[in-house]
């Protein structure tokens, strides 16, 4: 019996990354296609990768998550095929879906590696699905691709984030002794996005910024009183024209300001990222750590959720939640207290959600919703 019927196969959908130095610039061309980015700028950005041997850590991290998901599915007796597909590099989404479609699979459900609502972190993946569907239709293969909901306020993700934060505070206290509200800060870090993208994300949902704030408030609320030092949300990985407003403050700029306010140590908690990929390794472990050293800060960077048991289990819960919805069953979608889950079919996360400046074909998110 197929426990995920009507879904034939699951997809771990991600961004992709180069595996060798000669792949770096071609990969960046894929990422920036259509944006008119000069070749010299791509080579400049590529230096981030060359500093790590020309290989992005994201691929090995996705392989680890793929294995953890497979193990959890097997533990529950779910034998549905699970594949891994990327937007920007091998293994490409279209190639992986084609392989299964040629063997009879037609209905796919995606597990995306981004927790929040925005064009880049949700809608653009739906555009990728639409492109794959159209490409395979031209080859005589009919497929559909659905996705689980954004999981920023799902209990599994929150529990894993809380565990990472708790361990980071334990490590930080080994450096500084007792925590001091005047001298120490928790900086929750996420990927900056243009202000217009933030506005688009808030048109039908609560939006990218508010979603981070909801998770941050929850994490702070469950901490012991002795560990509850001031916390705030900061950003990293800004790119593009300096004339275009992006969400601020940048993590490095904010640390410099905090130093002037008498702060002497920070704990960075990357709640905007699920694994220690290049943006975490370079922007936080390299650049932010260098800034902290220059300021004389005590510094600890919390782990990302990676393959934490609660996170992996939560993703499978989300798969089964969506499967039940596709079957027409009444489903209770759990969310953090005081927050609302973006339930497929609710009208919040819809075909209108998180529009970009350039309109492309997109899978009508939750096309099979009740």
What does this structure look like?
The protein contains eleven helices and eight strands. Helices cover 42% and strands 12% of the residues. α3 crosses α11 (309-326). It has helices at residues 24-31, 39-50, 58-75, 93-101, 119-137, 155-176, 195-201, 208-221, 251-260, 278-295, 309-326, and strands at residues 9-14, 82-86, 107-112, 144-147, 184-191, 231-236, 265-269, 298-301. Residues 365-370 have low confidence and may be disordered. It is globular. The protein is of the alpha/beta class and 370 residues long. The two termini are 24 Å apart. The chain has a four-stranded parallel sheet, with helices on both faces. Strands 6-5-7-8 form a four-stranded parallel sheet, with helices on both faces. The chain folds into two domains: 9-151 and 308-326, Rossmann fold (3-Layer(aba) Sandwich), CATH 3.40.50; 155-301, 3-Layer(aba) Sandwich (Rossmann fold), CATH 3.40.50.
Could you outline the blueprint of secondary structure elements for this entry?
Layout: E1 9-14, H1 24-31, H2 39-50, H3 58-75, E2 82-86, H4 93-101, E3 107-112, H5 119-137, E4 144-147, H6 155-176, E5 184-191, H7 195-201, H8 208-221, E6 231-236, H9 251-260, E7 265-269, H10 278-295, E8 298-301, H11 309-326
Parallel strand pairs: 1-2, 1-3, 3-4, 5-6, 5-7, 7-8
Features:
4-stranded parallel beta sheet, disordered C terminus, alpha/beta, Rossmann fold, 42% helix, 8 strands, 370 residues
As a percent range, the share of helical residues equals 40-55%
Taken in chain order, the helices and strands follow as EHHHEHEHEHEHHEHEHEH
Beta-strand content bin: 5-15%
Read across the widest sheet, the strand sequence of neighbours is 2-1-3-4
* CATH-defined topology of the largest domain: Rossmann fold
């Amino acid at each position: 019996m197929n426990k995920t019927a009507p879904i034939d196969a699951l997809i771990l959908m991600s961004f992709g990354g180069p595996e060798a130095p000669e792949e770096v610039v071609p990969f960046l061309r894929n990422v920036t296609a259509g944006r008119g980015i000069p070749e010299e700028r791509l080579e400049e950005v590529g230096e981030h990768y060359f500093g790590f041997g020309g290989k992005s850590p994201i691929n090995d991290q996705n392989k680890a998550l793929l294995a953890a998901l497979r193990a959890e599915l097997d533990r529950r007796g779910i034998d549905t095929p699970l594949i891994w597909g990327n937007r920007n590099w091998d293994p490409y989404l279209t190639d992986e879906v084609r392989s299964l479609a040629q063997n009879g699979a037609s209905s796919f459900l995606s597990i995306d590696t981004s927790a929040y609502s925005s064009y880049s972190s949700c809608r653009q993946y739906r555009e990728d699905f639409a492109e794959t569907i159209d490409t395979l239709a031209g080859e005589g293969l009919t497929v559909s691709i659905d996705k689980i909901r954004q999981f920023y306020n799902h209990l599994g993700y929150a529990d894993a984030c809380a565990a990472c934060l708790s361990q980071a505070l334990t490590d930080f206290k080994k450096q500084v002794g007792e925590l001091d509200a005047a001298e120490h800060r928790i900086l929750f870090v996420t990927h900056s996005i243009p202000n217009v993208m933030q506005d688009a994300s808030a048109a039908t949902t609560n939006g990218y910024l508010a979603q981070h704030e909801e998770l941050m408030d929850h994490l702070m609320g469950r901490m012991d009183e002795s560990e509850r030092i001031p916390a705030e949300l900061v950003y990293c990985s800004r790119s593009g024209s300096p004339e275009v407003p992006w969400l601020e403050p940048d993590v490095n700029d904010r640390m410099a300001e905090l130093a002037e306010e008498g702060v002497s140590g920070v704990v960075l908690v990357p709640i905007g990222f699920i694994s220690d990929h290049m943006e975490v390794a370079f922007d936080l472990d390299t650049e932010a750590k260098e800034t902290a050293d220059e300021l004389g800060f005590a510094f600890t960077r919390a782990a990302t959720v990676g393959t934490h048991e609660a996170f992996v289990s939560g993703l499978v819960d989300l798969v089964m939640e969506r499967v039940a919805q596709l079957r027409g069953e009444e489903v209770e979608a759990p969310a953090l207290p005081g927050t609302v889950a973006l339930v497929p079919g609710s009208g919040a996360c819809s075909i209108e959600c998180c529009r970009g400046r350039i309109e492309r074909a997109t899978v009508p998110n939750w096309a099979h919703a009740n």
